[in-house]
Write the structure tokens for this entry.
Amino acid sequence: MDTDKEVIGYVIPVFRASHDVVRGLTEAQEENVTEEGINYVAMRNLFVREAREAMEVKVEKRTRTTHIRESAERMELCKTMEEWAEFRKKMNPDSLTHRPEFIVKPRGQTVWEGKTVKLHCTVAGWPKPRIAWYKNNVLIDAKAHPEKYAVESNYNMHSLEIKNCDFIDTAQYHVSALNVKGEVSSVATIVVKRFQEGKEAGPLDPKPHGFCAEHGVTFETTIIDKFEVAFGREGETLSLGCTVIVYPTVKKYQPEVVWYRNSVPLKPSKWVHTHWSGERATLTLVHLNKEDEGMYTLRVNTKSGFDTYSAYVFVRDADVEVEGVPVAPLDVRCHDANKDYVVVTWKQPAVEGSSSILGYYIDRCEVGTNHWAQCNDAPVKYARFPVTGLVEGRSYIFRVRALNKEGVSRPSRVSEAVVAMDPSDRARLRAGPSAPFTGMIKFTEEDPTVGVVPGEPSDVVVTEATKSYVVLAWKPPVQRGHEGVMYYIEKCILGTDIWQRVNTGMPVKSPRFALFDLAEGKSYSFRVRCCNSAGVGEASVSTGEITVGDKLDLPSAPGNPVATRNTDTSVVVTWGASQVKHLVGYYIEYTVVGTDKWIPCNNKPVKQTRFVCHGLTTGTNCVFRVKAVNAAGYSQSSPDSDAVVVQAAISVPGKPTGMSLVEAVKDYMVLAWTAPASTGGADIRGYFVDYRTVKGDVVGKWHEMNHKALTTTSYKAENLKENVFYQFQVRAMNMAGVSKASLASAALECKEWTITVAGAPVGLHVLEVRDTSVVVLWEPPAFNGRTPVNGYYLDVKKTSAGEEGWKAAHEKANKMKYMKVTGLKAGTSYVFRVRAQNLAGVGKPSAVLGPILAQTHPGTKEIYVDVDDDGVISMIFECSEMKEGSEFVWSKNYQTITDTSRLTIITEQGKSRAIFNSPSLEDLGIFSCVVTNTEGISSSYTLTEEGLKRLLDISHDHKFPVIPFKSEMAMDLLEKGRVRFWTQVEKCTSACQVEYAFNDVIITEGQKYTMNFDKSTGIIEMFMDSLEVTDEGTFTFNLVDGKAKGTTSLVLIGDEFRELQKKSEFERAEWVRKQGPHFVEYLGFTVTPECNVLLKCKIGNVRPETEITWSKDSIEIAEDDEDAQKIERKDGDLTFNIGKWVIKQEKPKEKGKKPTAEDVPPPPRPKISKADAGIYGVILRDDRGKDKSTFNLTDAGYQAVMNELFRVIANSSSEITVVSTEHGIILSSMVTYYNEELRVGWLQKDAKIAASERVKSGVTGEQLWLKINEPTEKDKGKYTMDIFDGKDGVKRVFDLSGKAWEEAFEEFQRLKAAAIAERNRARVVGGLPDVVAIQEGKSLNLTGNVWGEPVPEVSWTKNDRELVSDERYKLKFEHGKFASITIAAVTTADSGKYALLVKNKYGTEAGEFTVSVYNPEEEENKEEKKG
């Protein structure tokens, strides 16, 4: 069947119409004509938001006089009629007995959900009628439901009180009055409204939340995944949520979900967001503030009823910016708002800071701006302040800040916006029409009142009086005209007749005014005058004597608080109420015993005298106190409560489970069961078994089998009848009481078993539950079968798996009655069962144990072993969740230890210590400890033979402690040859003492020995100035620190002692040497990167007068010697540059003329030769002494210098480069310097290259090269240059193959071809002059030498024009080498530029020359002309 099309009947709800319709049906609507002034008509039409219907308005004008006269006539007529009716009653003979009648009928009301409502009525009648109340025609039994209803009857006045109204309380309530004369009844309708925005739905509007109109469905609501007690911090965002299941599921139907805080419905705002997804209800509190703290309730309404869930939300204060300042106030509200006046109230914070709060600052901000203005210059002590000076018609928000000696707190959350306007205007804005509209308005014509001076105000009273201010309130005058009035306030000091106007600058518009700057303790009288444009009216009656001072007293201290256990993290605190007016609430604080820091439990005051303090630490010992608060401030704190340990309260245990039969005989049966999962916070003290007989479908009554509690989970039920069926149930008991009975077992027949295998093990339980392991324990079966039990098998499976999921936890039978199961998966639930085995086979499995969640309990600790300073070995187990009655129970191999000869157990609060009396191999095994009255907190420790041996070693070390040394005794040689014996201990106390001994004889500090013991570092020292022959032997340090001892020795004998003595004497001689000029570093050598060989030394303690003398081969080097120029001194460094080139300059032959720098030849590269060999020495000498240093630069010394030189040269070599020439390929490397003694070898393919005409190696300057003439393919390969560096040699490798070979060979061929072309190119090699000058008429004959292969072609040119051999020019070319030109008789025309051109296939060349022909006579004439 299609469920979507199934017709389901629904129940029609009792109340479905809107509030307006119900009110119209149940309340008589009188047809009275509304009389209104014309001004009121205009105002109402202005502020009414919606007109429900368009109606005709009939206006009838009357004067005020006529209206008053008609009203008086009607009142007189009514009075006459009432008097006549009373007279008629008295004259009636049956007037003493009459039927009931309602003098005052109950009236229908509309209330908010969660409020309390009362129905009242007055009934007359004789005899006195009996009153009964009905809800929807069902009698209300107030005595049966006192929490919901309260009925009262006093002097014919009757009432029905309905408490904490709910939506289902919306109904028709009948009151019935009955006596012998008859019965009357009256009906009133109660409408309970939920808090939600928007107008109410009308009867024809669609119903919200999927309203169902059919019959026959009853909804069941279940709330799961509930939110717990929550903790937030100011400024954070907090979400609460629950999953709601409504059964049955109806399409398009959704329940109504409402959230409450402290029983007040919440509506969505910028601070509160609600969401309903159809399954989950979520409430999100954005930017938490302390105002959000409280009890939150989720209510799910369906047409069949409702379901709720509640939990508390705590909001902690945000961290303060300055240490010690108070936290922010809370719950800022605005009251009594008027045109220019509003009263701001707030609640004091729970934490005052490091000092008491001195007062509060109130800030205001006009809505739409971000400008905050402080309202009070001086802080106010009261949590209430009148703010004046507001601008009418504008909206404001307010906030408050607290002040103490350390500074000002953060501001509170801002208040709701409030409009500065007249309260009557505000009421008209909020309300719609106040009565059903009849369609006709009657109003009277007002008499003209323009220019009327207002009358005097009335009822001038002081509503508030504090040290800081006084607030006056009054009623506006009756006579004030149509224009608005304003007020002047006047004060008078008691004892004077002078009235002083307070607000001279500006009259106030509101009938409220706050007066500041009054003298505390003085008495004043106040009065008020009205004014308008017509003038100032008469003054009101004065208030009488008012003394300035606080009228509201501080609260008295609350009564003694009583703290009782609740849960592992909460405590219930109750206290006596504070005697005070206008109580705001209470703050509860707690401190942990042993500390002096009080922590607030709530940050929002509570009015009840009972509070549950959450968020406490389990196991802590806490003390509580309470303080009350009202607008005047805080009370004194209550006395401290008794200390209470935070842990769960004790309750009765849960039901036992798994009732089963383990053995049956003719007249008895053995039963077994599983202990309850919940012990109720206390140990199970025993069990009670009940039984009943079963005959077919008829069961008997339950009877007790045991009157004394059983201590095991099995029982032998005796005195039963054979072949009779029985059922059994069991109940557990702890100190809180007896649990409910378990489920009854199946009907069990009492007859003897004939089974051969063992029965099922019983008493399964677990210990040491961890993420990956658990220990399962059990008891042997009550029925062993034909042979004794010889082993057990443990099965395990995941809870979610089926029967096929059972797996054996081990292969071989386990002879123990316990087993540790490992390899579990954290967070997974498992179940276990055990089977017993005997010679006949394996019996039936036990009852299933579980589910057990593989998860380590938070805070679980393991047993650890400790060895104290006295060597005592003990096992320690700690528990932070100890409860009342909890005990530590130690076991060995999971059998409770009763023999105290092996172990001594000491328990202190949450720690238990099991001390081994005399540890030995008898103590090997598994030691476990269980904490009773907890959630199975337990642990175990396995003591093995190896572990016992290790512990015994540690115990011995502790009994006989040895002072540990960081280092054994050592010896150092110090300056002057002093000897230091020292050692260092790892740790010691200030009481540690040292005994110094030599050859077992105690020595003390004196002239020979100096001792020192730095206990902060543990360093022990002994100093001796020198070692003598008698000091050969053993030096010992003996240490004693309490009972710890330590010894360290150093043996100095034989060769070791004599060697040390020599070193000491040498060090002393060195010290003496260093008292005068001395060598810090003796003469040695170094080779610089530039290959300069330097002899160098470093000197110290020299003076200007200290002589420094160099010598070579014992011959002093004088200042004018050539070698003296090689000596340099820089600070304390002396150097002798052996290879430095000294320029010798000859004296000039001409006096006064010095050679120029160009005349001096450049020096060669630095070098060294055997001529430099010799013994060099340096002597330092002055009046303090002398020192000498020599260096032998001969033989081995010379060779060492040369090897270092070779090393520097070899390492300075560059990588091999390749260059091609016309003859072949050259491989080369550059070095900084080359010495002729340097060995350089070349290898090709790791084979030494032999010198030949084609392949040669050599050196040119600093270039090392290998020339390969006419290279061939055989010359390809890897080439290595091996340079001797004094040791192994430095190798430079170049791979002349591949691309490198191709490029080099191609370049060689190109250069070779170019060289051939250059050699055979045609060219003029000589014979021709550059210029020829010849006299006219002479013969010119020139011959040029020509070269070329092949023989070049020859031609001559004159002025770039080729000449041809003829009679004038005779051109010849002979033997292929000589080209000649002959001109027989030259003339001036033969002058010009001539060239001999030669040409062959390799090139062309021209030999140019110039011929100049002159005439002697012409030359002479030119000379004469010049002369």
Q: What stands out?
A: Confidence is low (pLDDT under 50) at residues 1-59, 197-215, 432-449, 1145-1149. DSSP finds nine helices and 102 strands in the chain. The two ends are 154 Å apart (CA to CA). The CA atoms of residues 804 and 1310 lie 93 Å apart.
